[in-house]
Amino acid sequence: MGGTDPAGPVLDRDEVDRALARLGQEHEAIETSLLALQDHAGRRLLEGAELTGLTRERWAAAEASITLLWAYFDAYTGALRTAREIRARRRWSSREDLAELTELLRGEPVTVPGAAAAGAAGAVAGPGRLSDRFSLAALVDRMNELYASSLDLVVAADAVWSALPARIDLLAAELQRTRRLAHSVGVRPGEHPAGDDLEGITRTLTRLREQVVCDPLAFWTPAQGSSAPGGGRPDTTVYDREARALEEVRREIDAVLGVRQDAEQRLIKLRDLLSRADRTLAEARTARGEVLAKIAATEVPVVSGPPTVLQEQLATAAEYRRQAQWHRLSPLLESLEEKAEDELLRARESLTAVTAPLAVRAELRGRLDAYRAKVARHGLAEDPLLVERYDAARRMLWSAPCDLRVAGQAVLRYQQAAAELLGGARVPRQGGPRDGDGKGES
Description:
By secondary structure, this protein is mainly α.
């Protein structure tokens, strides 16, 4: 849709002919646009839909605008027909004809009833006015405005209807497949959170589709700074959120399916982990008795028994598997696997803590024998002082209960004596293990 030249002096014949040619082209373009709007799929859908909310309000105004558009076009057509008839009176138009044509083409020859203008919510003529007059240029500009706003609404509604319902239907179909799969593995509403989520997604999608069909403009986001009709995009915020929620549920269902496939292997591994933890704790309890009998003046941590709750939960997991309650088995297995690993680590740490004094004693024994071998290589093994100190340290380290502090000091005295005989090498003074900490010399 276009525009015309501004007002000017009386037109000559050539100017009239050019103006009429231009107006004819505009008339054809306007008619083509109006017919396209009339046949637009979005407009037909809007006419046949039971609209609500924003769309109902805006479509009522748009229908009035479209009606007014045709009234304006009819008035424009009449003015153009009159101008053509005047020009066709004679081949060489008289001055009176040219003056009349100038008034038609440049003046305000078109009168529109005020009631018609008021039909577009008072956007054209003020309330109470019986009629309004327009130049052809002003009339074209007004038609352009009404056409653009009407087309914008039609295109927006059609874009939403073309995009969202189909996507919602596809997601709903995927939702139904997921619900059937979930039901097959025991994921049902009221019994599993994922089942409740599926019910919530179903309700939301059903409500969303109804809203999109009845009020598409509520789901339209206009493009910032765009003046083109239909500039913008469908608002898919709610749809995208439900699609993500369904994807999360699908992942959870896949996890449950995975449990069904490898539940037996995971249960076997769990039994092995807990068995190893129990054996390690039993070894720690045995080692604690040995430490208490063989090591003096030290505190040995108490070794706790295996937690019965894990065995009970393992039995529950096995029962879930027998009853094919995969949705209950899945989270229980994940929890048990983590707890079993922690239990084995705790048992190993307990064994390490309990046997620390024995490790210190073994380290002292090794150090004593290493120094004895060293002095023997230098032919000093029979030195009376070394023999005396070696025998004293050895009696302490191979007697029960062994006082690690005293034994550590005895080993240090032997090292010092050996170093002096081997050439006066300086051996740094080191203390033995502290009382109760179960740690010896490094």
